[in-house]
Amino acid sequence: MAQVTPETLVEVRDLHLAFRNRGEPFWVLQGISLTVPEGGFVAVLGPSGCGKSTLLRVLAGLLPPSWGEVRFAGRPLRGPHPDIGLVFQEANLLPWRTVLGNIALPLELRGLPRAQILAQARAMVRLIGLEGFEHTLPRDLSGGMAQRVALARALIYRPRLLLLDEPFASLDALTREQMWGELLRLWHHTRVAVVMVTHSITEALFLADRICVLSPRPARIRLCFDVPLPRPRTEDLRYTPEFGALARRVREAIGAAAPTRADIPPQPEHPPAR
Ligand SMILES: Nc1ncnc2c1ncn2[C@@H]1O[C@H](COP(=O)(O)OP(=O)(O)OP(=O)(O)O)[C@@H](O)[C@H]1O
Ligand SMILES: [Mg+2]
Fold it and tell me: Does residue 181 have its Cβ closer than 6 Å to ligand 1?
């Protein structure tokens, strides 16, 4: 079972990020600091449009910080990294490739020997429970199956960090709950660290070691706490007063009033030379 170790895999220090809008900075992230332990599971919540996906893109090395720093495995993150996998809300599978072909794609792009690619892809198919569907095309998969393939494709590199942006948002409620079990199984098996953006408080409490709630844009950390619930987290746990109290705490943090102009500290107009 994946245990949170004291070793820090990701360290975000005073992260600020602005997009440019007709030359003017449009501040999305402001003074975000957080850590992700090796093998840990962090859920990020916050109101719509606050900057959650932007934060994930920074953690993926796809957007450079305007200010502050992201460190991955002890080094500054300067761009996309082979040890970081990313899965979005939509599975984004290649429609002309089979399940096996989609899962194998990252290894093909790396130019590994054919036999090794097949062996690893087949092992991933077993891990996500899709044996018998190796040669099925994405159009013939259910939403949950397609999302499992997307997870397998992200995990085949054996990344140390898996970034998930609302990966189950397009699934119906029951399938979504099944996927929680699937994801926890994959997490235990691979010991990958996970940062997952979600709108579901129940999902966050059910899955995560740590929950961070962002404020409305420009996003700052409003609340970050370790989830004091034992594992394995069973269905019954969701109906306990303890679960209810934690859910309320998160709900209140998400719903709290937006910061006023006076709350927002002066913003660096030009990022410092790095
Ligand atoms: N490439 C971009 N250029 C300019 N503005 C952007 C860009 N990407 C995102 N934004 C803006 O940044 C803000 C935060 O967007 P982001 O997608 O990070 O929010 P979110 O918290 O993920 O929202 P949701 O919960 O709806 O997915 C929004 O106002 C959005 O319009
Ligand atoms: Mg988003």
Answer: no
Distance separating alpha carbons of residues 246 and 200, to the nearest angstrom: 13
User: Is the pLDDT score of 60 beyond 50?
Assistant: yes
Question: Is the separation of the CB atoms in 218 and 27 below 8 Å?
Answer: yes
Separation of alpha carbons 118 and 103, rounded Å:
10
Mean pLDDT of the 259-274 span: 48
Question: Kind of pairing, strands 67-72 and 8-21?
Answer: antiparallel
Q: Which ligand is nearest to the CA of 47?
A: 1
User: Which of 21, 48, 50 for mutating ligand 1's site (highest number of atoms within 8 Å of CB)?
Assistant: 50
What domains sit in the chain, N to C, each tagged with a CATH number? 8-83+159-263 (3.40.50.300)
| Mean pLDDT to the nearest integer, 24-45 | 97
Cα gap 84→28, rounded to integer Å: 23
User: Quick one: which of 37, 36, 35 has its CA closest to 7?
Assistant: 37
pLDDT tens, 120-153? 999 999 999 999 999 999 999 999 999 999 999 9
CA separation for the pair 200, 247 (Å, rounded): 10
